[in-house]
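Z., the sequence and structure:
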Amino acid sequence: MYGLIGGLIPDAIRIINNRYNPVLPEYLKSPSFYIGTLLLVVLGGGSAYLLQADSVVDALAMGYSAPQIVSSVLQQKANLIAPPVDGGDTGTRGGPTLFETETKKPSMRGWWGM
């Protein structure tokens, strides 16, 4: 149960961060956002179940980290296949992505931002 909640945390934080924005973000109007969120929640709950979380904190941490890892890897993969049209950042943490430019060497900060 707590693994499912852990899987919901990243999207809940994203929505809470936009609570003062008077305009509803476009992704909240898309059914793919809700389908993706549901898949990440199930992934979080499944990882906590399969890894046999011993406590509430473990279940929340496992539920949070599994979807974050998968969504970060998929986002980086998408950036490699189809880089942003405007050359801007599509990372979730506001910093440059690891593979943003060919001339830039990967940095520790870029790695943590994945």
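The longest helix spans residues 56-81. DSSP finds four helices and no strands in the chain.

Let me know what you think.
H.
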